[in-house]
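User:
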Amino acid sequence: CIVVTYQGDITTTDPIQLYRSGANTGDGLDQYLDLDVEIGTGGSFGDCTGFSATSTLFNDTLQNFAATHLDYASALGTGWTPTGAGQNRTFRFTLTLQDDNAAQGKSAGFGFTWEARG
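Assistant: Predicted structure:
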């Protein structure tokens, strides 16, 4: 789990957007990793104890996330539109390795960006 806190001073009418940070790195493991992204409340950084999902934002491979959510224009809408500084939401990222021997010996590196615009 990752708790994202809005500390901005802009009035945003658009939801916070989520997209990849740069290109995935590694040698192909991302195609064998199923990624679920949920938004909700509770939990803390690195600990999902008490997390309660309000919706699932993404359910596909990490490779497809990186290929389709490249920047703000193609970002994944979170449905969260903060109305002031100090508000937060928790995001739970679950990666599941597919049962495929072709994934052996492969690696993947990735990152995520949250962005608000006014």
